[in-house]
TrEMBL record:
This is DUF1456 family protein. It comes from Psychromonas marina. The lineage of its organism: Bacteria, Pseudomonadati, Pseudomonadota, Gammaproteobacteria, Alteromonadales. InterPro entries: YehS-like. It comes from the Bacteria. PANTHER family: CYTOPLASMIC PROTEIN, CYTOPLASMIC PROTEIN-RELATED.
């Protein structure tokens, strides 16, 4: 999934307005202006579309964690190195932390999107990359998880986002 789509779907699912989005970005020392926010919220192919860098999405998710769970004392935002890629597994992990989801919450979100996975499949997504049972999170699984959290927080299908 492209990072713009993830950002747009998270915003829709959690009902975040422009002001709240800008506050989340600012909370991780990455203040952006409203025009840039609108540009990264555009869909691919639209006139003002600007690609959202992986580092920007990572900072936003870190800000969302701070917003939902509280900021850790003495911690500062971690900026991805240049050309580093934020994997779907990383996105899923950060969303899980921000939303304070336990295993059952994750499974329920996926089941509500009609994409059931087993507990062992889910735990494989959160293992370290070099673990023998590690599994890559595919775009379809991430998309369905985002649809599931949209269903949970908005009561509507995430396909509208």
């Amino acid at each position: 999934m492209i990072t713009n789509d993830v950002l747009r779907r998270v915003r829709y699912a959690l009902q975040l307005n422009d002001k709240k989005m800008l506050e989340i970005f600012a909370s991780v020392d990455n203040a952006i202006d409203e025009n840039y926010l609108h540009s990264i919220m555009e869909k691919e192919g639209e006139e003002n579309f600007v690609f959202c860098r992986d580092s920007l999405l990572s900072l936003f998710l870190d800000g969302l964690i701070n917003e939902k769970r509280g900021k850790k004392e003495g911690s500062s935002p971690v900026i991805l190195p240049a050309k580093a890629i934020l994997s779907n597994n990383d996105i899923l992990r950060k969303l899980r932390i921000a939303l304070n989801f336990k295993e059952d919450d994750m499974l329920n979100a996926l089941a509500s999107a009609e994409f059931p996975v087993s507990k062992s499949e889910l735990s494989a997504l959160f293992r370290k990359r070099d673990h023998r049972n590690y599994k890559e999170c595919g775009d379809q699984l991430l998309r369905n998880f985002l649809n599931g959290i949209t269903e949970r927080f908005r009561g509507t299908s995430g396909k509208d986002a």
